[in-house]
Amino acid sequence: MLKVGLLRYTAIRALMIIPTVLILYTLVFIVLRVLPGNPVLAALGTKNIPEEQLQALMRELGLDKPLYVQYFDYLVNFIKGDMGKSMIIRGRPIASDIVDKLPATLELSIWSIIFSLIIGVGLGYLGARARSDRVKAIIRLTGSIVFVIFIPALGLSLQLLFSKYLGLLPTGGRLSTTGYFKPITGIYTLDALLRLDIPVFIDALKHIVLPALTLGLVISGPYMRLTLNNMEEIMESKMIEAYRARGVRDSKILRHAFRHVLVPVTTYTGLQFSLLMGGAVLTETTFNWPGIGTYLVDKVMYRDYTAIQAVIIIFAIIVGLTSLIVDILYALIDPRVRY
Amino acid sequence: MMRAQSIFTILKNKYISTGLIIVLVFVFMAILADIISLYSPVDPAGPPLQPPSRDYFMGTDNLGRDVFSRIVYGSRIMLMIVAIAVAMSGAIGTMLGLISGYLGGLLDRVLSFIMDSIYAFPSLILAISLSVALGASPINAAIAIAVVYVPTYFRMVRGQVLSIKNETYIEMAKALGLPSIRIVLKHILPHVTRTLMVVFSMNSADAILTEAALSFMGLTVQPPTPDWGFDLYKGRGFILLGYWWIMLFPGLSIPLLAVGFALISEGVSTLITARKR
After folding, report:
1. Tell me, which fold does domain B2-276 have in CATH?
2. Domain ranges of chain B
3. CA distance B177 to A321
4. For B170-196, how does the pLDDT look when each residue is reduced to its tens digit (9 = 90+)?
5. Which chain A residue shows the shortest CA-CA distance from B117?
6. Considering the entire predicted model, what is its pTM?
């Protein structure tokens, strides 16, 4: 009975992603295409093109059709897996670019979440253990203002320190040598482990540390507050009082309390995702990390509208899927969720 | 709405007073830029890449321009874009939130859905795409930032309206036959303003970071206009060669100004919860 309910809930939530993606596609389509200005001219950045050549190019890209036809054509093609062709590099399918770049962004995101959990939950936990209210206040304040760090500035400082002065870590890229390493999933740290290639794993790890630390630190604030506040709440609860009454050691009590904090922390990770994706764009540009973010900025520089449109839809789908997964996890963890 | 006494309690809050001082310092810097800066922000003031010294106390950049003067003038662009963006998104978001929450029905559902979709999407990515489409300029960047943050205000205001709308005094106002516009503006809006202040200052902090990010991608000003994010982008090749001062000062100004607004927001929200208790 329960399983059918969850299945239905999942299906309905999955269907809800479609209108969300449609809204963002429509918004971007309106701004990119309906607003005055010829996208091809903007992309080429010059007005000295013979009229016939321009017309031919417009035809090739399907831009001569009425707008509503363009709108639906792109949508239908997208569902078939064809995200259109680049306006700049003629004939290059965007879909293959995105398949190329997505794993890099995924890898950066995963490691950033790991770092932000270590920093955020760690500091929050220390704050809850600290006896002085001052320490608590400082950690709480840090938690609410750490997001203001400007990612490129922090990234450049770390590069300066760890690469230029200490010479410990590389300034950018994903691997020092790519020639002999054949990726499986495209997530290099994972691939290296799968191939049992320890030197490559260490190399990949060295490359990911600084970007992931930068992004992880910037998004760690909510974890600090969440851990600290929940720990404090639980420490004042009847449950802990009961433990104390039974003479359980303090360190053990803390461990018990900590387990209860993990639930809100886990669910919050889903909410962090949109912040994470935005930050990833800046982090990738700062560290020359060849992911979707660098790709987007690249296309932005050349005003490659089709590619920008595709990236936006991809991000919308990613965000939709993450919130779907979080909701399902939440429904599984907490049976009170109605579905 | 504010009495002298309550202004005093507000200023006594450490978060608010610290935040206000930070923000006001930057505001005065922007207003008095001509007097404060020692050199022109766009012309070379001395030899390039000079470290901080008595003459150039934040050093000079790769073109020999005084970094301090560029910071001072850069605050103008930053504050202007953020002020326009926040004012626009605040006005539009609040208005739509009031209408949508008060009228309800299909309009409310459609609007909420659209707003939620935009809200869930990474704001920076959307802002980048919008400013590309509109064309790189300060005013277009402000519009792009404004669009992205409309849902923030919409959701908050709508939520508040929904919780107030069924109070007895609103029903009484309706029974008295007051026009909807009057009810919304005179009897609902004032109750929203306090929370609006929290969102407003929090959003300013966000908008500062978004502006800096757009500038870092070259989507706001054209050279040689001074702008913190853009200066960081232009100087980053030199930064890694060891000329740290080109990065440090813009890199610190951006978060410092944002912290100012974040502190105000933090302070106001603690005041509100304290009053509720």
Report:
1. MetI-like fold (1.10.3720)
2. 2-276
3. 47
4. 888 888 988 888 888 888 898 888 889
5. A20
6. 0.89
